[in-house]
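Worked example (supplementary).
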Amino acid sequence: QHGRVKLKSTAQQEEEKRKEREKKLKIYVAGRDAIFTKRLEGVLDDEALQLTQQLLSSNPDFATLWNYRREILLHLETKMYEAELLFLESCLKVNPKSYGSWHHRGWVSARLPRPDWARELGLCDRCLSLDDRNFHCWDYRRMVVKMSGVPVDQELQFTDRLIGSNFSNYSSWHYRSTLLPLLHPESPDPPSPCHQHSHSSPPPSPQTHSHRVCEEQLLKEYELVQNAFFTDPNDQSAWFYYRWLLGRAEREEMISCVFVSREEERVAVAFSRPVNASSSGLMLVLDGQPQRVEWRSVHPHFRHSPVWPHLIVLPPSFTGRSESWCRDSATDQELFRSELSVEKTSVLQSELQSCNQLLELEPQNKWCLLTIVLLMRALDPLGYERETLSHFQTLKEVDSMRSAYYGDLCSKFMIENTILKMEYAEVRVFSLSDKNLTMLCHLDQLLLVTHINLSCNQLLRLPPQFAMLQCLEVLEADDNAIENLDGLYYLPKLQEVSLKNNQISKLSDLQLLTSCPKLTCLDLRGNPVTQIANIQSELTELLPSVTDLLI
Amino acid sequence: MGTQVKDVVIKSDAPSALLLDKHADYIAAYGSKKDDYEYTLSEYLRMSGIYWGLTVMDLMGQLTRMNQQEISDFIKSCQHDCGGISASIGHDPHVLYTLSAVQILSLYDNVNVLDVDKMVEYVRGLQQEDGSFAGDKWGEIDTRFSFCAVATLALLGRLDAINMDKAVEFVLSCMNFDGGFGCRPGSESHAGQIYCCTGFLSIAGQLHQVNADLLGWWLCERQLPSGGLNGRPEKLPDVCYSWWVLASLKIIGRIHWIDKSKLRSFILACQDEETGGFADRPGDMVDPFHTLFGVAGLSLLGEGQIKDVNPVLCMPEDVLERLGLHPDLLS
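After joint prediction of all chains, the assembly is encoded as:
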C-alpha cells in the first residue's frame, strides 16, 4: 500500500468510519465467498461474471478473479469480449497501475480474431497523456506495437512529441534508446571467433551500447539531448541519456596479454573481459603440441576472471629467455575511450564548449559538471587531467551525498591515465602514489607489473582482484587505511611488502601472506596489529620465511 | 523555469530512535483482527504478507511470538495439485507465493511439509522457450518471476531443474541503456526489477555480466535530499526502496555510494511511534510490507540491534548459513 496518509479524527468520526468499513467488509466477504463457492462447483455463468466484476472494480489485484473470468471467457464466443474490453477500460481508469488489469487486457486482445490494435494504441496514448511514466502502459504499448507492426520511426516521432512537451521524460528517452539501434543500426561487426565459444556469454542486448547506433544518427541525437538539458538543466533524464550517448563500445572478448616464465614454469593469460577459462576451451599449444592444462583462477572468489595463471612443466629442451610476454597496447585497443571520427570529435568539442557556458550560469549543477568530465574523458583523458581533478573536487562539494561515488570514479580515471602513460614508459614499474585513490580497478591490465607503488592514498583494502598481479615482486602501500589483504593471494614472485601506517589490526588479517612463497620482507610499522602482545613471535611463527620483519 | 526535485521534507519531530519493540508488537498483533477491511482485501497476497511478518520478526529476534503450527498448516493447505502454492486458501497458485511459502518454511526449517518434487516440477514448467518465466499458467512474463523461480529452487537445492543458460540470456536481454533492468525486454529500469535481476544473476553466478559502475551510479542517484531513496528518476522516496535499491547496491559491491546516515534518518522517520510499524514515507499509514523493508534496510546499513539480512534472498543470514547458501556478491 502506498501513499496513504494517516489522518487524525475525532472519536465520533472514528466510530462512523468503523461502521462504514464493517458494512463494506460484509458485502465484500459475501461476494468473495459466493465466487469461491461457484468456482469450486465448476460454474461458469453470467452471475460469476457479475460478482467478479464487482470485486475487481475495487480490487483489481485479486488475481484469482481475473483467472476465473478467463475460464468463463474461454467458454464464450469472442464477440462477447467487447464487454470485457469496456470493463477493463473502466478498471484502468480507476487504477492504471494494476498488473492484473493490463495482463488481462493483453490476453483478451490477443484472443480476438481481429484485434483492434489501433484502438489499443489510442488507449495507450490517452493513458500516457495522463501519466507518461506509467511503465505498465509503456509495456502494453510495446506489445501492441510489436503485434501490429507499427513502424519504428512512427514510435520515435511519438517520443519526440512527448519529450518536447513534458518535463518528466525518462520513459520516453528510455524508449528511444531501444528504438534507435533498430532504425539506425551500425553495420554489424563480423562475428568474432571467440563469440562462438562463449556459451556463458550471450550477445549484449542492443540497447546497452550506443555504438550500435550509426554515427550520423548519434550526432543528431546529441543535438536533441542538448536542447533538452539547455532548456531545463535540472532535467535528469536528458543527462542520463547523454551519458549513454557518450559511452564506448564494449571490448571484444579476446586475449590481451600472455606471460610465460620458464623459471616459474608458468603461463598466465589475460583476457579483455572476465571469462571462465575452464569452460571456454582455452588451449595452450607449445611448439605445435597441444598441452594438457588446468587453468586456475587467480582467487577462489572468481569463477569468471580476466586473468588465468597455469602451472606447466616446460620440457628441458625449451630454450630461450627466462621469461617473455606478448601484450596488446592499451592505446591500440582503444582501452578507455571510444574511437572518434573527425565529425564526432568536432561535435564533442562544441558540446564541451556549450556545457562550459552552461556551467558559468549554473556553477552548482552537478549534472553539468559530471558531463563535462565525461566529455573530457572522451576527447583527451591525459590532456584534461588537471581540469578533471578540479571538477571532481567541486562535485564532492555540491553533491556531497555522492562523494564516495565521485571518489571512486575519479580514482578509476586516474588509474586509467596512469595505464595510458605506461604506454610510453616501462610496463613493469607502476606508480599510483599520492592520487587520492579510494579504490583499485583495471588490475587485469597489470599482469606484467613487477613493482607497484600505492602509497599515500585512501585505500581500505587490497581486493581479491589484486591477485591478478601475477608478476609482482615489490609492493609499496604505505599511508593508506588498509585493513584487508584479500588480494595478496598466491602471488608467486612477491618478495617485499611495505604496509606502513595502515589499519591492519588482527593477526588473522595477515594469514593470506602465507600463500606467497617468496615473501622475505614485510614492513608493518604504524599498524594497530603491532600493539598486540607477543606480536613479534606470533609473526615469526606465522611467516617463518620473512627474515626482514619491521614492526 | 525548471523542474523541482520531487521529495519529502522530514519534520523536526519525526522519530529518530529505533523502536524495535513497538514494531514487534505491531507485527505480532497484525492479522489477529481478521475482520479488518484492509487485511481482507489483501488476502490475494496473504502468503507474501506472512513472509514479510515472519522475516521481520526473525530479524528482530522475535520469531517465537508467531504461531508456527498454524502457519505450517495454512501453507500445506495452499499447495495445489500442480505443485504450485497460492496466496491463500481458494486462490490460484503462482510463483510469487510459491517463493514466499518456501521462504517461510525455510525460516522454520520445515520445507518438507510440502511436496517438494511437485513444487520443483511446477517451477520448471513455468519456464518458456526464450528462457523467461511465466508467473502462472496464464502466461504473464516478468523478470520478477525469473527471480522467484531461481530463489525458490536455490532454497530447495534444485537449481538444476531449469535451463539456467537460457534463463540468464533472457534476464540479460532486459538490461537497459542505463545499466538497469525492467520487467521484459525493452521495459524501463526500475529498482524493484533491478533487485530481482541482480539477485537472479547472483544466484546464477553471472554477476560479472552487470555493469556495476554504471548501474551503481543509477542506483545511488535514487537518493534524494531528504536522504530517502526513490525507485526511478523523478519519483518520490519510499522506504521499500531502502531495500530494493540498497540490496542491489550491496549485491554489486557499491553500497558505500549511498549516504548511509541520511538514509538511516529517513528510514527512522518513517516509523509510527503510536502504532509501531513503518510507512512508505513519514506520516503515512504503516503496513507489514514497509515494516520489513525498513528493518531490512537498517540491517544492511549495519544496525547492531537487528540480525544480518542476506541481500539476495531477504532472509536472515543465519538461516541461509544453516542451508549452506552463499550467493555471490561483487566486491
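Two points are worth noting when inspecting this output. The first helix of chain A runs from residue 11 to 40. Chain A touches chain B through 74 residues (CB under 8 Å).
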